[in-house]
Protein backbone atom coordinates (compact mmCIF):
# COMPACT_ATOMS: atom_id res chain seq x y z
CA UNK A 1 0.00 0.00 0.00
CA UNK A 2 1.33 3.43 -0.92
CA UNK A 3 2.22 5.85 1.86
CA UNK A 4 -0.35 8.58 2.32
CA UNK A 5 1.23 12.01 2.38
CA UNK A 6 -0.36 15.39 2.81
CA UNK A 7 -0.39 17.33 -0.43
CA UNK A 8 -1.56 20.92 -0.17
CA UNK A 9 -0.48 21.87 -3.68
CA UNK A 10 -3.20 20.52 -5.96
CA UNK A 11 -6.50 21.05 -4.22
CA UNK A 12 -6.20 24.75 -3.36
CA UNK A 13 -5.41 25.50 -6.99
CA UNK A 14 -8.39 23.49 -8.14
CA UNK A 15 -10.67 24.59 -5.36
CA UNK A 16 -9.51 28.11 -4.70
CA UNK A 17 -11.80 31.06 -4.08
CA UNK A 18 -15.46 30.97 -3.14
CA UNK A 19 -16.67 27.37 -3.74
CA UNK A 20 -20.26 28.52 -4.29
CA UNK A 21 -19.22 31.01 -6.96
CA UNK A 22 -16.94 28.39 -8.52
CA UNK A 23 -19.75 25.87 -8.67
CA UNK A 24 -22.19 28.36 -10.20
CA UNK A 25 -19.73 29.53 -12.84
CA UNK A 26 -18.61 26.04 -13.82
CA UNK A 27 -22.17 24.74 -13.78
CA UNK A 28 -23.33 27.62 -15.96
CA UNK A 29 -20.82 26.58 -18.63
CA UNK A 30 -22.09 23.01 -18.39
CA UNK A 31 -25.66 24.29 -18.52
CA UNK A 32 -24.91 26.13 -21.73
CA UNK A 33 -23.40 22.94 -23.10
CA UNK A 34 -26.34 20.86 -21.94
CA UNK A 35 -28.77 23.21 -23.65
CA UNK A 36 -26.70 22.83 -26.80
CA UNK A 37 -26.62 19.04 -26.58
CA UNK A 38 -30.28 18.73 -25.64
CA UNK A 39 -31.15 21.00 -28.55
CA UNK A 40 -29.18 18.79 -30.93
CA UNK A 41 -30.62 15.61 -29.41
CA UNK A 42 -34.12 17.05 -29.49
CA UNK A 43 -33.75 17.92 -33.17
CA UNK A 44 -32.43 14.40 -33.77
CA UNK A 45 -35.47 12.94 -32.04
CA UNK A 46 -37.83 15.04 -34.15
CA UNK A 47 -36.15 13.74 -37.30
CA UNK A 48 -36.46 10.17 -36.01
CA UNK A 49 -40.12 10.61 -35.06
CA UNK A 50 -41.02 12.01 -38.48
CA UNK A 51 -38.88 9.46 -40.38
CA UNK A 52 -39.83 6.19 -38.66
CA UNK A 53 -43.33 4.83 -38.43
CA UNK A 54 -45.06 5.02 -35.06
CA UNK A 55 -44.56 1.28 -34.61
CA UNK A 56 -40.83 1.42 -35.49
CA UNK A 57 -40.26 4.39 -33.21
CA UNK A 58 -42.03 2.55 -30.39
CA UNK A 59 -39.82 -0.50 -30.93
CA UNK A 60 -36.67 1.68 -30.91
CA UNK A 61 -37.83 3.50 -27.76
CA UNK A 62 -38.53 0.15 -26.11
CA UNK A 63 -34.95 -0.98 -26.80
CA UNK A 64 -33.54 2.23 -25.34
CA UNK A 65 -35.70 1.70 -22.24
CA UNK A 66 -34.09 -1.71 -21.68
CA UNK A 67 -30.64 -0.15 -22.12
CA UNK A 68 -31.58 2.51 -19.56
CA UNK A 69 -32.57 -0.28 -17.16
CA UNK A 70 -29.11 -1.82 -17.37
CA UNK A 71 -27.47 1.60 -17.23
CA UNK A 72 -28.99 1.99 -13.78
CA UNK A 73 -27.23 -1.20 -12.66
CA UNK A 74 -23.92 -0.50 -14.39
CA UNK A 75 -20.84 -0.88 -12.16
CA UNK A 76 -23.07 -1.94 -9.24
CA UNK A 77 -23.69 1.73 -8.50
CA UNK A 78 -19.98 2.53 -8.17
CA UNK A 79 -20.25 5.16 -10.93
CA UNK A 80 -22.34 7.31 -8.60
CA UNK A 81 -19.71 7.18 -5.89
CA UNK A 82 -16.74 8.29 -7.95
CA UNK A 83 -17.53 11.99 -7.50
CA UNK A 84 -17.63 11.57 -3.72
CA UNK A 85 -14.62 9.37 -3.00
CA UNK A 86 -12.09 10.55 -5.57
CA UNK A 87 -12.27 14.25 -4.45
CA UNK A 88 -11.93 13.20 -0.78
CA UNK A 89 -8.94 10.93 -1.50
CA UNK A 90 -7.36 13.57 -3.72
CA UNK A 91 -7.93 16.28 -1.09
CA UNK A 92 -6.03 14.11 1.38
CA UNK A 93 -3.24 13.39 -1.10
CA UNK A 94 -4.08 9.66 -1.11
CA UNK A 95 -3.22 8.94 -4.75
CA UNK A 96 -3.10 5.19 -4.21
CA UNK A 97 -6.78 5.15 -3.29
CA UNK A 98 -7.63 7.45 -6.20
CA UNK A 99 -6.17 4.90 -8.61
CA UNK A 100 -7.75 2.02 -6.71
CA UNK A 101 -11.21 3.62 -6.85
CA UNK A 102 -10.87 4.06 -10.61
CA UNK A 103 -9.84 0.44 -11.15
CA UNK A 104 -12.70 -0.78 -8.95
CA UNK A 105 -15.30 1.12 -10.99
CA UNK A 106 -13.85 -0.17 -14.26
CA UNK A 107 -14.09 -3.74 -12.96
CA UNK A 108 -17.72 -3.16 -11.97
CA UNK A 109 -18.55 -1.81 -15.43
CA UNK A 110 -17.00 -4.87 -17.07
CA UNK A 111 -18.98 -7.30 -14.90
CA UNK A 112 -22.39 -5.68 -15.29
CA UNK A 113 -21.90 -5.19 -19.03
CA UNK A 114 -21.11 -8.87 -19.54
CA UNK A 115 -24.20 -9.82 -17.54
CA UNK A 116 -26.43 -7.50 -19.58
CA UNK A 117 -25.17 -8.70 -22.96
CA UNK A 118 -25.27 -12.35 -21.92
CA UNK A 119 -28.84 -11.99 -20.65
CA UNK A 120 -30.07 -10.66 -23.98
CA UNK A 121 -28.21 -13.16 -26.17
CA UNK A 122 -28.58 -16.27 -24.01
CA UNK A 123 -32.22 -15.82 -23.00
CA UNK A 124 -34.07 -14.53 -26.09
CA UNK A 125 -37.03 -16.77 -25.36
CA UNK A 126 -37.58 -15.16 -21.98
CA UNK A 127 -37.36 -11.68 -23.48
CA UNK A 128 -39.78 -12.54 -26.28
CA UNK A 129 -42.48 -13.24 -23.68
CA UNK A 130 -42.19 -9.65 -22.44
CA UNK A 131 -43.17 -8.04 -25.75
CA UNK A 132 -46.08 -8.53 -28.11
CA UNK A 133 -43.99 -8.02 -31.27
CA UNK A 134 -40.62 -9.17 -32.66
CA UNK A 135 -39.36 -5.68 -33.61
CA UNK A 136 -38.27 -4.48 -30.15
CA UNK A 137 -36.29 -7.67 -29.49
CA UNK A 138 -34.38 -7.44 -32.81
CA UNK A 139 -33.34 -3.87 -32.06
CA UNK A 140 -32.40 -4.78 -28.49
CA UNK A 141 -29.81 -7.27 -29.78
CA UNK A 142 -27.98 -4.26 -31.24
CA UNK A 143 -28.70 -1.57 -28.66
CA UNK A 144 -27.60 -3.69 -25.69
CA UNK A 145 -23.98 -2.87 -26.57
CA UNK A 146 -24.70 0.70 -25.47
CA UNK A 147 -24.64 -0.53 -21.85
CA UNK A 148 -20.83 -0.70 -21.43
CA UNK A 149 -20.29 2.40 -23.59
CA UNK A 150 -22.79 4.50 -21.63
CA UNK A 151 -21.30 3.30 -18.34
CA UNK A 152 -17.79 4.31 -19.42
CA UNK A 153 -19.12 7.67 -20.57
CA UNK A 154 -20.71 8.38 -17.18
CA UNK A 155 -17.56 7.20 -15.41
CA UNK A 156 -15.30 9.54 -17.41
CA UNK A 157 -17.74 12.41 -16.94
CA UNK A 158 -17.53 11.96 -13.16
CA UNK A 159 -13.73 11.88 -13.23
CA UNK A 160 -13.48 15.12 -15.18
CA UNK A 161 -15.86 16.70 -12.65
CA UNK A 162 -13.64 15.48 -9.79
CA UNK A 163 -10.66 17.36 -11.21
CA UNK A 164 -12.67 20.48 -12.06
CA UNK A 165 -12.49 20.26 -15.86
CA UNK A 166 -15.85 21.63 -17.05
CA UNK A 167 -14.41 22.60 -20.45
CA UNK A 168 -13.54 18.99 -21.25
CA UNK A 169 -17.02 17.91 -20.15
CA UNK A 170 -18.49 20.66 -22.32
CA UNK A 171 -16.67 19.43 -25.43
CA UNK A 172 -17.19 15.70 -25.05
CA UNK A 173 -20.62 15.54 -23.48
CA UNK A 174 -22.35 18.47 -25.11
CA UNK A 175 -20.67 18.95 -28.48
CA UNK A 176 -19.04 15.76 -29.72
CA UNK A 177 -21.52 13.12 -28.53
CA UNK A 178 -24.77 14.72 -29.76
CA UNK A 179 -23.13 15.79 -33.03
CA UNK A 180 -22.07 12.22 -33.80
CA UNK A 181 -25.60 10.94 -33.16
CA UNK A 182 -27.10 13.74 -35.25
CA UNK A 183 -24.86 12.62 -38.09
CA UNK A 184 -26.31 9.12 -37.79
CA UNK A 185 -29.87 10.49 -37.86
CA UNK A 186 -29.15 12.64 -40.92
CA UNK A 187 -27.88 9.54 -42.71
CA UNK A 188 -31.05 7.75 -41.62
CA UNK A 189 -33.15 10.43 -43.34
CA UNK A 190 -31.01 10.72 -46.46
CA UNK A 191 -30.73 6.98 -47.00
CA UNK A 192 -34.37 6.29 -46.07
CA UNK A 193 -32.99 3.61 -43.74
CA UNK A 194 -34.80 1.72 -40.99
CA UNK A 195 -34.59 1.45 -37.21
CA UNK A 196 -31.88 -1.23 -37.43
CA UNK A 197 -29.57 1.22 -39.21
CA UNK A 198 -30.33 3.79 -36.51
CA UNK A 199 -29.50 1.34 -33.72
CA UNK A 200 -26.16 0.35 -35.27
CA UNK A 201 -25.32 4.01 -35.86
CA UNK A 202 -26.06 4.94 -32.25
CA UNK A 203 -23.73 2.24 -30.96
CA UNK A 204 -20.94 3.23 -33.35
CA UNK A 205 -21.23 6.94 -32.53
CA UNK A 206 -21.12 6.24 -28.79
CA UNK A 207 -17.98 4.12 -29.14
CA UNK A 208 -16.18 6.85 -31.10
CA UNK A 209 -17.14 9.48 -28.52
CA UNK A 210 -15.97 7.45 -25.51
CA UNK A 211 -12.67 6.62 -27.25
CA UNK A 212 -11.90 10.32 -27.68
CA UNK A 213 -12.99 11.03 -24.08
CA UNK A 214 -10.63 8.32 -22.81
CA UNK A 215 -7.63 9.90 -24.54
CA UNK A 216 -8.48 13.28 -22.99
CA UNK A 217 -8.68 11.73 -19.55
CA UNK A 218 -5.30 9.99 -19.84
CA UNK A 219 -3.74 13.40 -20.50
CA UNK A 220 -5.50 14.85 -17.45
CA UNK A 221 -4.49 11.85 -15.30
CA UNK A 222 -0.85 12.36 -16.23
CA UNK A 223 -1.05 16.12 -15.65
CA UNK A 224 -2.41 15.59 -12.12
CA UNK A 225 0.65 13.50 -11.24
CA UNK A 226 -1.34 10.28 -10.85
CA UNK A 227 0.94 8.55 -13.35
CA UNK A 228 4.71 8.49 -13.49
CA UNK A 229 6.66 9.40 -10.37
CA UNK A 230 3.64 9.29 -8.08
CA UNK A 231 1.98 6.38 -9.82
CA UNK A 232 3.77 3.59 -7.98
CA UNK A 233 0.99 2.40 -5.70
CA UNK A 234 -2.61 1.20 -5.82
CA UNK A 235 -4.93 0.71 -2.87
CA UNK A 236 -8.43 -0.48 -3.77
CA UNK A 237 -10.95 0.86 -1.21
CA UNK A 238 -13.47 -1.87 -1.98
CA UNK A 239 -15.03 -2.14 1.47
CA UNK A 240 -15.45 1.62 1.88
CA UNK A 241 -16.91 2.17 -1.58
CA UNK A 242 -19.21 -0.86 -1.63
CA UNK A 243 -20.50 -0.01 1.84
CA UNK A 244 -21.50 3.36 0.43
CA UNK A 245 -22.71 2.40 -3.06
CA UNK A 246 -24.56 -0.88 -2.63
CA UNK A 247 -27.30 0.77 -0.55
CA UNK A 248 -27.44 3.52 -3.18
CA UNK A 249 -28.29 1.04 -5.91
CA UNK A 250 -31.84 1.75 -4.84
CA UNK A 251 -31.28 5.31 -6.11
CA UNK A 252 -30.58 3.94 -9.58
CA UNK A 253 -33.64 1.73 -9.35
CA UNK A 254 -36.00 4.70 -8.91
CA UNK A 255 -35.71 6.13 -12.47
CA UNK A 256 -35.42 2.59 -13.81
CA UNK A 257 -38.79 1.69 -12.35
CA UNK A 258 -40.41 5.03 -13.21
CA UNK A 259 -39.38 4.99 -16.86
CA UNK A 260 -37.74 1.75 -18.02
CA UNK A 261 -39.80 -0.78 -16.07
CA UNK A 262 -42.96 1.25 -16.66
CA UNK A 263 -42.21 1.17 -20.40
CA UNK A 264 -41.64 -2.60 -20.30
CA UNK A 265 -44.97 -3.09 -18.52
CA UNK A 266 -46.65 -0.78 -21.02
CA UNK A 267 -45.16 -2.84 -23.87
CA UNK A 268 -46.40 -6.05 -22.24
CA UNK A 269 -50.02 -4.92 -22.02
CA UNK A 270 -50.18 -2.78 -25.17
CA UNK A 271 -48.76 -2.46 -28.70
CA UNK A 272 -45.63 -0.51 -29.68
CA UNK A 273 -47.78 2.43 -30.78
CA UNK A 274 -48.87 2.95 -27.16
CA UNK A 275 -45.23 2.85 -26.06
CA UNK A 276 -44.52 5.53 -28.66
CA UNK A 277 -47.29 7.77 -27.27
CA UNK A 278 -45.60 7.78 -23.86
CA UNK A 279 -41.95 7.84 -24.87
CA UNK A 280 -42.31 10.52 -27.56
CA UNK A 281 -43.00 13.31 -25.03
CA UNK A 282 -40.68 12.05 -22.29
CA UNK A 283 -37.56 13.85 -23.62
CA UNK A 284 -39.47 17.15 -23.74
CA UNK A 285 -40.66 16.69 -20.14
CA UNK A 286 -37.14 15.77 -19.02
CA UNK A 287 -35.84 19.08 -20.38
CA UNK A 288 -37.06 20.47 -17.04
CA UNK A 289 -34.25 18.46 -15.48
CA UNK A 290 -31.54 19.91 -17.72
CA UNK A 291 -30.41 22.60 -15.25
CA UNK A 292 -30.45 20.20 -12.31
CA UNK A 293 -28.28 17.69 -14.15
CA UNK A 294 -25.81 20.38 -15.22
CA UNK A 295 -25.42 21.84 -11.73
CA UNK A 296 -25.16 18.40 -10.15
CA UNK A 297 -21.98 17.48 -12.03
CA UNK A 298 -19.80 19.88 -10.05
CA UNK A 299 -21.97 20.01 -6.91
CA UNK A 300 -20.96 16.63 -5.48
CA UNK A 301 -17.15 17.04 -5.76
CA UNK A 302 -17.27 20.54 -4.25
CA UNK A 303 -19.69 19.49 -1.50
CA UNK A 304 -17.50 16.45 -0.76
CA UNK A 305 -14.45 18.69 -0.28
CA UNK A 306 -16.47 20.99 2.02
CA UNK A 307 -17.64 17.94 3.97
CA UNK A 308 -14.06 16.69 4.28
CA UNK A 309 -13.16 20.08 5.81
CA UNK A 310 -16.18 20.04 8.16
CA UNK A 311 -17.66 23.17 6.56
CA UNK A 312 -21.41 22.52 6.99
CA UNK A 313 -22.31 26.20 6.58
CA UNK A 314 -20.48 26.21 3.26
CA UNK A 315 -22.50 23.19 2.14
CA UNK A 316 -25.75 24.90 3.14
CA UNK A 317 -24.86 28.03 1.16
CA UNK A 318 -23.76 25.93 -1.80
CA UNK A 319 -27.04 24.01 -1.86
CA UNK A 320 -29.52 26.88 -1.51
CA UNK A 321 -27.81 29.33 -3.84
CA UNK A 322 -27.52 26.70 -6.55
CA UNK A 323 -31.15 25.64 -5.93
CA UNK A 324 -32.66 29.08 -6.55
CA UNK A 325 -30.56 29.36 -9.71
CA UNK A 326 -31.96 26.01 -10.88
CA UNK A 327 -35.54 27.08 -10.12
CA UNK A 328 -35.26 30.31 -12.13
CA UNK A 329 -33.23 28.92 -15.03
CA UNK A 330 -35.59 25.94 -15.42
CA UNK A 331 -38.70 28.13 -15.59
CA UNK A 332 -38.68 28.84 -19.37
CA UNK A 333 -38.71 25.13 -20.16
CA UNK A 334 -41.48 24.56 -17.62
CA UNK A 335 -43.52 27.37 -19.16
CA UNK A 336 -43.35 25.73 -22.59
CA UNK A 337 -43.76 22.08 -21.62
CA UNK A 338 -46.50 22.64 -19.03
CA UNK A 339 -48.54 25.74 -19.88
CA UNK A 340 -48.11 25.31 -23.65
CA UNK A 341 -48.14 21.49 -23.67
CA UNK A 342 -51.02 21.05 -26.12
CA UNK A 343 -49.69 23.31 -28.84
CA UNK A 344 -46.09 22.21 -28.28
CA UNK A 345 -46.94 18.52 -28.73
CA UNK A 346 -48.88 19.03 -31.96
CA UNK A 347 -46.32 21.44 -33.39
CA UNK A 348 -43.32 19.22 -32.68
CA UNK A 349 -44.64 15.72 -33.25
CA UNK A 350 -47.64 16.09 -35.53
CA UNK A 351 -51.31 15.22 -35.22
CA UNK A 352 -50.68 11.48 -34.79
CA UNK A 353 -49.16 12.22 -31.35
CA UNK A 354 -51.67 14.95 -30.37
CA UNK A 355 -53.24 12.81 -27.64
CA UNK A 356 -49.91 12.73 -25.77
CA UNK A 357 -50.06 16.35 -24.58
CA UNK A 358 -51.65 15.61 -21.16
CA UNK A 359 -48.81 13.14 -20.51
CA UNK A 360 -46.28 15.86 -21.30
CA UNK A 361 -48.05 18.29 -18.98
CA UNK A 362 -48.18 15.90 -16.03
CA UNK A 363 -44.62 14.62 -16.25
CA UNK A 364 -43.28 18.12 -16.99
CA UNK A 365 -44.93 19.49 -13.84
CA UNK A 366 -43.39 16.73 -11.74
CA UNK A 367 -39.93 17.30 -13.19
CA UNK A 368 -40.08 21.04 -12.61
CA UNK A 369 -41.15 20.44 -9.02
CA UNK A 370 -37.96 18.41 -8.71
CA UNK A 371 -35.88 21.15 -10.34
CA UNK A 372 -37.29 23.83 -8.02
CA UNK A 373 -36.16 21.76 -5.02
CA UNK A 374 -32.65 21.35 -6.41
CA UNK A 375 -30.23 18.43 -6.16
CA UNK A 376 -31.72 17.37 -2.85
CA UNK A 377 -30.36 13.83 -3.01
CA UNK A 378 -26.70 14.82 -3.42
CA UNK A 379 -26.17 16.35 0.08
CA UNK A 380 -27.69 13.22 1.58
CA UNK A 381 -25.11 11.10 -0.27
CA UNK A 382 -22.21 13.34 0.66
CA UNK A 383 -22.94 13.26 4.40
CA UNK A 384 -23.66 9.53 4.27
CA UNK A 385 -27.39 9.38 5.15
CA UNK A 386 -27.59 5.99 3.47
CA UNK A 387 -30.35 4.42 5.55
CA UNK A 388 -32.71 7.31 4.89
CA UNK A 389 -31.85 7.32 1.17
CA UNK A 390 -32.60 3.61 0.85
CA UNK A 391 -35.86 3.97 2.78
CA UNK A 392 -37.28 6.76 0.63
CA UNK A 393 -36.08 5.08 -2.56
CA UNK A 394 -37.92 1.90 -1.63
CA UNK A 395 -41.07 3.90 -0.88
CA UNK A 396 -40.84 5.67 -4.26
CA UNK A 397 -40.26 2.38 -6.08
CA UNK A 398 -43.22 0.73 -4.37
CA UNK A 399 -45.44 3.72 -5.17
CA UNK A 400 -44.37 3.64 -8.81
CA UNK A 401 -44.99 -0.11 -9.14
CA UNK A 402 -48.40 0.07 -7.49
CA UNK A 403 -49.48 3.03 -9.63
CA UNK A 404 -48.13 1.42 -12.81
CA UNK A 405 -49.91 -1.90 -12.38
CA UNK A 406 -53.09 -0.12 -11.26
CA UNK A 407 -53.21 2.31 -14.19
CA UNK A 408 -51.27 0.96 -17.19
CA UNK A 409 -53.39 -2.10 -18.10
CA UNK A 410 -56.52 0.05 -18.33
CA UNK A 411 -55.27 3.48 -19.37
CA UNK A 412 -52.14 2.62 -21.36
CA UNK A 413 -49.76 5.52 -22.03
CA UNK A 414 -51.87 7.94 -20.01
CA UNK A 415 -51.72 5.66 -16.99
CA UNK A 416 -47.94 5.44 -17.36
CA UNK A 417 -47.71 9.23 -17.31
CA UNK A 418 -49.82 9.49 -14.16
CA UNK A 419 -47.74 6.82 -12.42
CA UNK A 420 -44.48 8.54 -13.40
CA UNK A 421 -45.62 11.97 -12.20
CA UNK A 422 -47.01 10.66 -8.92
CA UNK A 423 -43.87 8.72 -8.03
CA UNK A 424 -41.64 11.70 -8.92
CA UNK A 425 -43.58 14.05 -6.66
CA UNK A 426 -43.54 11.66 -3.70
CA UNK A 427 -39.84 10.93 -4.05
CA UNK A 428 -38.81 14.58 -4.12
CA UNK A 429 -40.89 15.55 -1.10
CA UNK A 430 -39.24 12.75 0.87
CA UNK A 431 -35.73 13.78 -0.26
CA UNK A 432 -36.38 17.39 0.71
CA UNK A 433 -37.54 16.34 4.16
CA UNK A 434 -34.29 14.45 4.67
CA UNK A 435 -32.21 17.61 4.19
CA UNK A 436 -33.11 18.59 7.76
CA UNK A 437 -30.92 15.79 9.09
CA UNK A 438 -28.12 16.70 6.65
CA UNK A 439 -27.80 20.19 8.09
CA UNK A 440 -29.22 21.86 4.96
CA UNK A 441 -32.74 22.53 6.20
CA UNK A 442 -36.11 21.84 4.60
CA UNK A 443 -36.42 25.36 3.20
CA UNK A 444 -34.44 28.61 3.19
CA UNK A 445 -37.08 31.24 3.95
CA UNK A 446 -35.07 34.19 2.66
CA UNK A 447 -35.54 32.77 -0.83
CA UNK A 448 -39.33 32.57 -0.48
CA UNK A 449 -39.86 35.66 -2.73
CA UNK A 450 -38.15 33.82 -5.60
CA UNK A 451 -40.67 31.00 -5.40
CA UNK A 452 -43.59 33.42 -5.04
CA UNK A 453 -42.60 35.11 -8.30
CA UNK A 454 -42.27 31.71 -10.00
CA UNK A 455 -45.72 30.58 -8.81
CA UNK A 456 -47.33 33.81 -9.98
CA UNK A 457 -45.69 33.53 -13.39
CA UNK A 458 -46.64 29.88 -13.83
CA UNK A 459 -50.22 30.49 -12.70
CA UNK A 460 -50.59 33.43 -15.09
CA UNK A 461 -49.43 31.35 -18.07
CA UNK A 462 -51.65 28.45 -17.04
CA UNK A 463 -54.72 30.73 -16.98
CA UNK A 464 -53.70 32.24 -20.32
CA UNK A 465 -53.55 28.86 -22.05
CA UNK A 466 -57.11 28.14 -20.90
CA UNK A 467 -58.40 30.94 -23.13
CA UNK A 468 -55.67 31.04 -25.82
CA UNK A 469 -55.39 27.86 -27.84
CA UNK A 470 -52.59 29.03 -30.14
CA UNK A 471 -49.03 27.91 -29.55
CA UNK A 472 -47.47 30.76 -31.54
CA UNK A 473 -49.20 33.31 -29.32
CA UNK A 474 -48.34 31.49 -26.09
CA UNK A 475 -44.68 31.13 -27.12
CA UNK A 476 -43.80 34.86 -26.89
CA UNK A 477 -46.01 35.12 -23.79
CA UNK A 478 -43.94 32.40 -22.12
CA UNK A 479 -40.73 34.21 -23.10
CA UNK A 480 -42.03 37.48 -21.62
CA UNK A 481 -43.06 35.86 -18.35
CA UNK A 482 -39.70 34.08 -18.11
CA UNK A 483 -37.91 37.41 -18.53
CA UNK A 484 -40.06 38.99 -15.82
CA UNK A 485 -39.27 36.09 -13.46
CA UNK A 486 -35.55 36.69 -14.03
CA UNK A 487 -35.95 40.46 -13.63
CA UNK A 488 -37.70 40.16 -10.26
CA UNK A 489 -35.25 37.57 -8.88
CA UNK A 490 -31.88 38.80 -10.25
CA UNK A 491 -30.79 40.32 -6.93
CA UNK A 492 -31.60 37.17 -4.96
CA UNK A 493 -29.54 35.22 -7.51
CA UNK A 494 -26.61 37.60 -6.98
CA UNK A 495 -25.82 37.54 -10.70
CA UNK A 496 -23.54 40.58 -10.45
CA UNK A 497 -21.32 38.88 -7.88
CA UNK A 498 -21.24 35.56 -9.71
CA UNK A 499 -20.61 36.93 -13.20
CA UNK A 500 -19.11 40.42 -12.76
CA UNK A 501 -17.88 40.42 -16.36
CA UNK A 502 -21.50 40.72 -17.52
CA UNK A 503 -21.60 44.24 -16.10
CA UNK A 504 -19.28 45.36 -18.91
CA UNK A 505 -21.86 44.47 -21.57
CA UNK A 506 -23.97 47.53 -22.47
CA UNK A 507 -27.52 46.18 -22.34
CA UNK A 508 -26.95 43.27 -19.97
CA UNK A 509 -24.96 45.41 -17.55
CA UNK A 510 -27.70 48.05 -17.39
CA UNK A 511 -30.27 45.35 -16.76
CA UNK A 512 -28.27 43.84 -13.89
CA UNK A 513 -27.57 47.20 -12.25
CA UNK A 514 -31.19 48.38 -12.44
CA UNK A 515 -33.37 48.07 -9.35
CA UNK A 516 -36.57 46.06 -9.51
CA UNK A 517 -39.70 48.24 -9.66
CA UNK A 518 -41.37 46.40 -6.79
CA UNK A 519 -39.20 44.68 -4.17
CA UNK A 520 -41.02 44.70 -0.84
CA UNK A 521 -39.08 41.70 0.42
CA UNK A 522 -35.57 43.10 -0.01
CA UNK A 523 -33.75 44.58 2.95
CA UNK A 524 -32.10 47.80 1.79
Characterization of the model:
The structure is a single chain. This protein has 524 residues and is mainly α. The chain has a domain at 52-246. It has helices at 10-15, 19-51, 54-73, 78-91, 95-122, 124-128, 135-143, 146-162, 166-191, 195-223, 238-269, 272-279, 282-286, 290-308, 312-339, 341-349, 357-373, 378-382, 386-411, 413-434, 448-467, 471-493, 495-498, 506-513. α2 packs antiparallel against α14, α3 (54-73) packs across α12 and α21 (448-467) runs antiparallel to α22. The termini are far apart.
Briefly characterize the structure.
By secondary structure, this protein is mainly α.
Question: Based on DSSP secondary structure assignment, what is the total number of beta strands?
Answer: 0
Strand content: under 5%
Main beta sheet:
none
Element-by-element helix/strand order: HHHHHHHHHHHHHHHHHHHHHHHH
Q: Quickly give the structural class.
A: mainly alpha
| Percent of residues in helices | over 70%
Distance between the termini: 58 Å
Amino acid sequence: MATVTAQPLESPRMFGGDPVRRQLRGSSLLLLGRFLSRGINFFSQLLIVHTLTTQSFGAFAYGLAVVAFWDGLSSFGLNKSITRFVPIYHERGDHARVRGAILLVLAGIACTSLIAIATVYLAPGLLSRMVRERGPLDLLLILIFLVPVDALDEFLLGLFACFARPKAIFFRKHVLAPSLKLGVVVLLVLLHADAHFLARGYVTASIVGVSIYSLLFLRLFRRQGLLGARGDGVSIPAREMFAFTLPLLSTNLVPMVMHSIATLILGYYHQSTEVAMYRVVLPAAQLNNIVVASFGILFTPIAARLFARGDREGMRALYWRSTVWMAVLSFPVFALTFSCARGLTTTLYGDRYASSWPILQMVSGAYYFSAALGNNDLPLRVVGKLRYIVTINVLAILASIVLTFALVPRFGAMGTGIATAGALLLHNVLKQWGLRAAGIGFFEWRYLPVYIVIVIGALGLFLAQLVIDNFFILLPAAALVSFLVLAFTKHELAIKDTFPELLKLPIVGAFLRAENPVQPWRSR
